[in-house]
């Protein structure tokens, strides 16, 4: 079984000492099983909170994968649209229940093939537009965004 942190804000570094509950201990053991040094997660673009679907697809991975992992992962690359190295775990959060639901290999393969065929472009575009709208609302309410990319 794969035991993930309870939320994206509950990520951890495997070697860090600290108070551990049963859930965290299970998640750390899972990370060690995959040879991960830290656990991170990302919602798959087009299937995140801004999508219309009740299925929110997420990938869990070694949060230090660029430094720690060496083996390219073409399936994860197709899903995330960026360099992906090492083992990754795909999960599907049911928006209605707030719990991960059982998924099949067929569903994961279908997601990968759809991405490789360019069939999710509209979903990704809608999600990007919704994100821009939310950022504009945030700024209208007085919030400030920070560009962390190096200036050219």
Classify the secondary structure makeup into a structural class. alpha+beta
Beta-strand proportion = 15-25%
Residue ranges: pLDDT <50 for 5 or more in a row?
none
Would you list the SSEs in sequence order as H and E?
Answer: HEEHHEEHH
Helical content class = 25-40%
Shape label: globular
The counted number of beta strands is 4
Helices, strands, pairings?
Blueprint: H1 22-33, E1 39-43, E2 55-62, H2 65-68, H3 74-80, E3 88-94, E4 99-101, H4 105-116, H5 121-140
Antiparallel strand pairs: 1-2, 2-3, 3-4
Helix pairs in contact: 3-4
Word description of this protein:
The chain is of the alpha+beta class. The chain contains 5 helices and 4 strands, in the order H-E-E-H-H-E-E-H-H. It has a 4-stranded antiparallel β-sheet, with no helix packed on it. The protein is globular, with a radius of gyration of 17 Å. The mean pLDDT is 81.
